[in-house]
Task: structure prediction
Amino acid sequence: MLNYYLGIDMGGTQIKIAVVDDKAKILEETVLDTDASAKPITIIKNIVEKVNTLKYYTKVKFIGVGIAGDIDSVKGIVRFSPNLPKWKNVYLKKELEKLTKRKVFIDNDANTSAIGAFWLDLKGKATNMVCVALGTGVGGGIIINKKLYRGASGTAGEIGHITVESNGNKCNCGNNGCIETYIGVKHLVNSAQELMKKHKSDIILKLADNDKNKITPKILSQACAKNDFVAKQVWKQAGEKLGILLTTILNFINPDHIVICGGISKADKLFFETAYKEINKRAFKTAAKSCKIVISKYTNKLGVAGSAMLVKN
Amino acid sequence: MLNYYLGIDMGGTQIKIAVVDDKAKILEETVLDTDASAKPITIIKNIVEKVNTLKYYTKVKFIGVGIAGDIDSVKGIVRFSPNLPKWKNVYLKKELEKLTKRKVFIDNDANTSAIGAFWLDLKGKATNMVCVALGTGVGGGIIINKKLYRGASGTAGEIGHITVESNGNKCNCGNNGCIETYIGVKHLVNSAQELMKKHKSDIILKLADNDKNKITPKILSQACAKNDFVAKQVWKQAGEKLGILLTTILNFINPDHIVICGGISKADKLFFETAYKEINKRAFKTAAKSCKIVISKYTNKLGVAGSAMLVKN
Result:
């Protein structure tokens, strides 16, 4: 018998909702705009209303929710969410269970993305996997023995805060030299802006409407494809740092798969080619050889599909 | 009914042998000098002879062996061991099983030490643990869900080769900036020798018989206890780097316990105090708070006790 699972991915601008099957294949999906100014209970009620319109919903027994921030997955509490400033100590699990009469699981979006990558990109055929989410920040999730690994306090997988330079860039977390400060969106853009003080780049300027403040990673990828010097430098430097992060993951955890997802996973191939070169130079040969590195094909679906599968984790 | 397990820890100078109980408590132990020039089969036969003299041996059903190097724990082959240059592709498991009529398990010494630390230092009361072995090199072993975690190719836990400086010291592994090149024995000694070019240290020189080449980490700890400037600098610098390594472990794996063992775990307290200060500055608060960091009290017993427990892993 086929089982049906409902996933809810609470983003800062959109709430994605989907019903998936046993293998996280999306059978039905919908979205809801996020009204960050609304009361949490109002948003929860809106979600339930939307969910009730899904034709597969009557067959769903379990619901999973992924949300950015500090999440107590055991008690089902959203302690704090950066995208939803009004959400402080919200008993999301309890409220949703009351309204849906179904069992609800919640977790942070890095973990749900890892579960999503395990099912959608790897079809559940990995044993030990690390998911590397490259976006504004750098997040991560760990699958060990086919299950999500949460660690002692549910914060396992904070790979964005692995130090790659002892006395490097100051990070918001309080540390210095976190990988996030070298390959996060802000740094990529800053890095281009700095380089452009010395090196002219008509290509980037044109793509950014002649406004350096409008530079985005997407523009840097487009410029890189056009052989722009600055853009190439930015992706090369970032690729080196990504390679160091991946080497640490390989040498430490020796996973059989690494899945790279998030907005920056769509960057120019120079970024990844540089990273792979660094791995060849730096990582243990056996660890590198036994790991398949995959760029996710489902970045925008990982959260909602992985949330739906939380019940299995 | 009490079970009895035999552990064999194959070191470069000594082979430790012990019978332990269900909780890795050592009931009986003995040692054998390692004759690295002898043929592997001769050493194996000598071990079996020695084992036969143990009074609890008749009750033993399972044997475990820990050995440094590249070990195929699935097939039971010692591919290569740095301490025993004659050991190349030795079918240790097969040979020992033939001679002892018992089931034999083998693994590398970093993994057996981790199992030993889990039982002896933590009494089996940890869930997710990382063992950090500080000595000539920096090794590690990972326990996840109370079991040894080996990864995709059995090389998980190579924490000595986590990069802490992108363009740092050249490491034997081929990488640059591995933590091992900052807190391994060689670097500690080099570091003192370098500092002594600028700063006189009568205390260190006296302890080293006026010969800079005789400086050891032990001498640096003794000098540190006597408030020697150079020794204090060495341990402070190394402590900072150790703190960065521990921060990466905390942020990435979020373990409930870290056990630090190996010769350098007996270093002056300034080394550890500095590391803990770095953790306070750098690590995620929840990850740091939920992890107990323990200096092993059983460094010399971990390998033999952990080897004996391999059957449970």
Observations:
- Chain B is about 35% helix and 25% strand.
- The radius of gyration of chain B is 20 Å.
- Residues 229-253 of chain B form the longest helix (25 residues).
- Chain B touches chain A through 47 residues (CB under 8 Å).
